[in-house]
Amino acid sequence: MAHITIETGSNTLCMSTSIHVVYPLEARRPSSSTLYLLHGAGDNASTWQRLTTIEMYAQQYNCTVIMPEANRSYYTDMAYGLNYFQFMTEELPELCGHLLRLNPDPQRTYVAGLSMGGYGALKCALTYPNRYSKAVSLSGVTDIQRRLRDGEMSHGMIKEMQAVFGRELTVSPEQDLYALAQERLKNKDSLPSILCCCGSSDPFVEMNRKFAAYMTDTAFDFKYVEGAGAHDWLFWEKHLKTTFEFLFTRNEETERGDAF
Question: pTM of the entire structure?
Fold first, then answer.
């Protein structure tokens, strides 16, 4: 395995940014897959690698894992800030594809994240299903409107959210996961496969249950996993295994089937 830290200027963000990459050196297949792995609001580009066994899974599944820096942007083109969604979905794949010679096949390109990053991962896949074939949300914010109406948000958090979503905390259809899912279904687009995992003691569990109930009744290939756990790294580490099995088991079964 190789751990690569990319420090580069971004034309979209108009500043320098960090990208952490786990790169498998000994490929077991002709071409590897790519996972964009998104951090939560209290983390940064290095946190997944520091606090989990992500390298072990990247090696096991021959997967390049790209962990970008997003600060506390909610992976959104901010009302009063920077265009992080444009960076994540346009500039980042182009940059990493050029530097790392990634497999460009959308069927081998995935996006996942935790908490704020779970929201970002689902938004990426539901906005561009032709770019990401699968998405995983761990303890994700699956109902951004409900999150913004949280009466227990501190004054500082409200100011943060206003910087992202505007002073009135208005959510546009492009920022709402339900609206994005409905748009994909309406247009009969190719639909990404989606996994959501949440702990039964997580403060976001009710919104995850509601999102799961909605998605299960649609044409999406959707799976929901709930188990003991809170909004913490113990739960996220445990469900890295769940994540990689979801991303790769079906692909491996298909490849074995094609061989006969």
Answer: 0.94
| Cβ pair 52, 123 in contact under 8 A | no
Domain ranges of the chain: 2-259
Q: What is the 3-state secondary structure (H, E, C) of 219-250?
A: CCCEEEEEECCCCCHHHHHHHHHHHHHHHHHH
CA–CA gap between residue 200 and residue 205 (Å, rounded): 6
Backbone angles phi, psi at 187, to 5 degrees: -85, 0
Q: 95-118 pLDDT, tens per residue?
A: 999 999 898 999 999 999 999 999
Q: Are strands 63-68 and 109-114 parallel, antiparallel or unpaired?
A: unpaired
Half-sphere exposure of 138 (CA within 13 A, CB side): 26
Q: Side-chain half-sphere of 154: how many Cα atoms within 13 Å?
A: 3
pLDDT in tens, 131-186: 999 999 999 999 999 999 999 999 999 999 999 999 999 999 999 999 999 999 99
Give how far the C-alpha of residue 165 lies from the chain's centroid of Cα atoms, to the nearest Å. Answer: 19
Spatial contact of 55 and 23, defined as CB atoms under 8 Å apart = no
Report d(CA 42, CA 243) in Å as an integer.
21
Residue 163 near residue 78, CB atoms below 8 Å: yes
Q: Are 36 and 110 in contact (CB under 8 A)?
A: yes
Beta bridge partners of 36: 66, 111
Superfamily of domain 2-259: Alpha/Beta hydrolase fold, catalytic domain (3.40.50.1820)
Backbone angles phi, psi at 23, to 5 degrees: -125, 115
